[in-house]
Amino acid sequence: MSALTSPDDAHQLLDVVLVERAKQGDKTAFRQLFDQHHRRVYALCFRLAGQAELAEEATQETFVRLWQKLPLFDGKSQFTTWLHSLTVNQALSCIKKHKSFWARFMPGEEAQTAAVAFDEYQGVDKLLLKLPERARIVFVLYALEGYQHDEIARRLKIAPGTSKAQYHRAKKLLQEMVS
Prior knowledge:
By secondary structure, the protein is an all-alpha fold. The chain has nine helices and no strands. The chain has helices spanning 7-23, 27-49, 52-69, 79-103, 108-112, 124-128, 133-144, 149-156, 160-178.
């Protein structure tokens, strides 16, 4: 019987090999990591940002940052866990940077209503695009990604109670949209 018991085990082993090669400057190995994880990173960025252009930018910044930070990955956690955390940080940073840039040129509501829906995104993803930015981010991190309110609060630099309130607001708005 093989030591690999599932496709996930095979992917984890491949990640280990590719990460080690990429750490040594192997651009082909890094490209393979990109190809293997790009869709998942983009999906998370899209859910957090609510806009395709912003999600693409955050995805690109995530992989640039990954190339820079890869030597710091020590293998104590799974690569996918580490990449997920890096993605959330980069997406939130990108959203914040864009928000402050556009806030200088546009009145508040106009800068926040640029969300676009795509046919390939079904169900909840389409509805998430209609949520206000902060409520959407908190909802995605809590309900879809499994973060706790205290961790969300630290990442967004808000109070845990604000995180809870935004989550309940998002949940209520989603329920209204479905009704």
